[in-house]
Design a protein that fits this description.
The protein has 966 residues and is of the alpha+beta class. The protein is built from 15 helices and 51 strands. It has nine domains: 199 residues, Jelly Rolls (Sandwich), CATH 2.60.120; 149 residues, Jelly Rolls; 74 residues; 57 residues, no CATH class; 57 residues, no CATH class; 63 residues; 75 residues, Immunoglobulins (Immunoglobulin-like); 82 residues, Immunoglobulins (Immunoglobulin-like), CATH 2.60.40.10; and more. Strand 7 and strand 8 form a beta hairpin. Helix 5 runs parallel beside helix 7, helix 13 packs parallel to helix 15 and helix 14 packs antiparallel against helix 15. The relative contact order is 0.03.
Amino acid sequence: MQKKKRVMSKALKVMAAGTIVFSSLGAIPFNTLAADVTATQVANDQVTIQNGVKAVYSQILNKSPYQGKIIGTANVEKPFSENFGSNEPFPGLGNQNYSIFKEGFVVIPVSGQYFFSAQADDQTTVTINETDRLSTTAYNQVAEKRFGHFHGGDVVAITQIMDQFIGVASMSLKWNMPNLVLSNPDGRRLDVPLSNTYPTREQAEQAALEMKKHGVLTEYYDGTTTTVFKGQAVEPESFTKHYGTFEPYPGLGSDYYTVKKTGYIYISETGNYRFEGGGDDIYSLAIDGKEIIKNLNFPNYAQTGNIYLEKGVTIKIEQTVANNQNIGYSSLKWTTPSQSTFSDIQVTDVYESKEKALASNEDLSFEEANAAVNNLFTNKDPNGNITSTTTQADIDAAQALINKVTDQTKKEELQAKLNKAQSQLDAKTAQAEAENKAREAVNNLFTNKDPNSNITNTMTQADIDAAQALINKVTDPTKKAALQTDLNKAQSQLDAKTTQAEAENKAREAVNNLFTNKNPNGNITGTMTQADIDAAQVLINKVTDPTKKAALQADLNKAQSQLDAKTAQAEAENKAREAVNNLFTNKNPNGNITGTMTQADIDAAQALINKVTDPTKKAALQADLNKAQSQLDAKAAQVEAENKAREAVNSLFTNKDPNGNITGTMTQADIDAAQALINKVTDPTKKAALQKDLDKAKAQFASNGTLKPDDFVLGTTTITGSYSGDVDRITLSKDGVESGNATKTNGTFRFYVGPGIKKDQSLYMVAYDKNGREIAREKVNIAAVTAGQITPTAMTIPGDANISGTYTGDVSRIEVSITNEAGTTQVYKGGTVGNGTFKFYSFDKTKSPKDIIVVRAYDSVGKLLDTKTVTIKNNVVTTAGQVTPTAMTIPGNSSLTGTVSGDVAAIKVTVNGTVYAGGSIASDGTFRFYTLDKIKKADDTVTIAVYDKAGKLLDTKPVTIQAPTK
């Protein structure tokens, strides 16, 4: 290892000069890198991350002898365990033949025995504290080792190297240790967590130092009744802990031991507390020397009643658990004044000594009092002003907290700050009284004492002057301004009240002058203008009395209505004439309508004519509008005829595209209907275009053809038949789904359907012409399926002269095979079959009771329906046997192998429902069956069956198929 470090250091020092190639180094640890490699390297090492590892990425140039090239280094925020897959882990590293080195410093989270396991793809080496090692040499290996005891807060240096040669890559480092929660840790392999892993020892030690601020004093004893002291340790953990079957302390063993934990808790809030404890096997709990749970046996838990504790006290908790055997654990939970449900006492609440608990919390009284004083001031700054919400009660509460501070210097400092707050509050109270008196005087000037309403009817100038004197005593500029604003409102209303009568008189005179004889109940004068009305409105707006103002406004509205009606009629006539003229070219009602005119334009003009009241002018306007309507109706009729014809023609084609093919459902009636609509079109150009598209449809529709599929026999894979006419291609519709194309040859076709057609499926052959139009569709008839069984009668040989029996179904003929003791088989055809029975003369063919006679039944076309062996009554031989197939790797193995026993004489293999006979059986009981052309995939379903020499089935087994491993 030292040699590797020296060579590695030299290689890194020359990195800036070019590519570094090193040989015979093996794995390269990160912590051997030279400090002066390159500026880039130094910058990389200075990258600051909270948690993670240091990593070196190297290419493997040669494995034997080892040669490698460093690609880069990095501080990465990742744990040791990492799955790279087939990705490139680092820029320029590639995705095969590389090595990754990780170094990290791990803070041990809990005291106890630790078990590490490592694995990688393809191989890994793990070093712990530079001495203990784990290593693997293949991707499917796992290296495991128990590393003894670690203490909570220990810093462990770990390095891990992963070498990858081909395929996917990963590296894994897991550990198993006791739990600080009530969960059995046995067998739990967890990744070494990122949160406990640091790239530098300094970071890890800082985290460990923070961790050790809290904890308990733990004593370990051998035995459960008569105990022998084994040792003690301050451990950064609380009272709840699950040891599983781990050894809690070196040399203690994993059963018949006692663990005592002592810790101190500083009480931070006054109130009732409750405790719940229990353990495996015997549990006791004492608080401040008083045993409150004693010798509680597993699996019970006990809860205490309420224990009243005051803030600032420190309590001592002693917990003892004795474990007889198997797993061991302890649990201690509590409730607090602010937490009503039981929960584990956290390690941050516990100290190993009373002195440490007090020292850690001795400043709480001062801090609490200081916070209370600061909260009295804006931005919590005692050099500023008190907050707007500070009350005497707040000051009194802060005073009570100051009284508890024992440090006289700090107490005087707090008292000085509090005195500032008291002085400001007193001044604030005096000012508030002056403000209240001024506010009361101002509010009394208004109805309901609301400055946003009107002044009272009895208010005088003397009342305003008295309120002004009180406002002058207010010092707060904002509040003084608000009071002055409200007083100014009162002054303004008082001033306005004296001038209102004058405003009302002027407004009345102006309104009356708008009418003849100054009578608002009559008609307006002949010379009145809108300017006269506007001037009167200005005067009315100055009137504040709502009743008088409403009466004036009503009379003014009469004048406005009469003036509006007088001018409205001329405007209506002008708008109607303009709208009608705009319908015509050059705005001439004696000409033609414009090319853009619509029915909406006519309707709009009609609406304007309807507003004209002069009968003569209205009639002239209506006559011109009628001319426009007549011309628009004629124009719309022709457009409609063209649109209907175009729609009819387009609908003959797929996707309504006349440049494509006609639809499969088009009929002659559709063509005739489209022709009739074209005949109504008068525009010669549009008519010719429509006729041209219709002629395309007619030409396509003229094609025809026939199909005649042959009957399809179940079990076959091809549909055949013949065709004639304009058939361009033939497809198959199976259960409504159309696919594929048949092979056509000189009026015949063949369509491969493959295996698996069932008799209840719907099959149609569909023919299309060259335009893609369906011209024929014929159902494929599925031929009847034959089936049948035979039951031969048992024979006595010698004795019986005939082989006989019964049959059912479609049996048409039989065939007999006879195998003698020498193994020679003769096959005979013949016999009689009819009316449910069969007979075959065999007297001259079988002489020995040990002959094996097999009868086979066939249908009329030679299909084998059934096979049975004839029982020889005077030669009943019992046979038995078993088969044990060897698992196969597909692709890979070309033959199925295994062993047979007993009377096995023949083998059959079934692959995905297809049965194959054959194979060979050796004298030593092994067999081989060639399957390269039969078993194709790892998910094929394969079984093997074995038979005796008479064809009797002896055993059937499934064959295990597995994909190749890496």
